[in-house]
Task: structure prediction
Amino acid sequence: RDYSNGARTLTSTDSNLRGRARSVNFITGKTYWEVKMVYRGDFSLTVKPAMGLLLNSVPAEEALGATLATGWALFPNGNYYNAALQGASGVGNVAVNDVVMFAVDPAAGKLWFGKNGTWVGDPVAGTGATFTNIPVGATTLRAAVELTDKEVVTANFMAAHLVYSPPSGFVSLA
Result:
């Protein structure tokens, strides 16, 4: 995997290479971040990149969301995954140039997804979260992206890089 654009853009350069990027900072309080799909690799929409949230203790060889009870992910087909818990997120397919939005409230144990300025659910009101099984009060949560096959994404963790404003009461990672 390669990093560019101030270490914000992650590129998977080989179909046999899995790369994972995590936020440097742990998530504390209501937090917002974004991931922009720059290039979609050779696999079908159901595979990668997985984008979402994980506990810091997740081993690198485990697939984000798909096999982990400690990873919560959105896949490009619009489905959400957390081990055996999966289904349609309401986001729809994620295409090149789409910006996927994430809002997490660790105190409430909730994670919301959105795309291109539109939320599924309402993070401000605390309703309609895709996941309600985030460990309440977890202190080792990180934003994460996992690539598999020649994908390119840009992570917007800092306020200066955000495309959309965080929901009221939420802050960027840095």
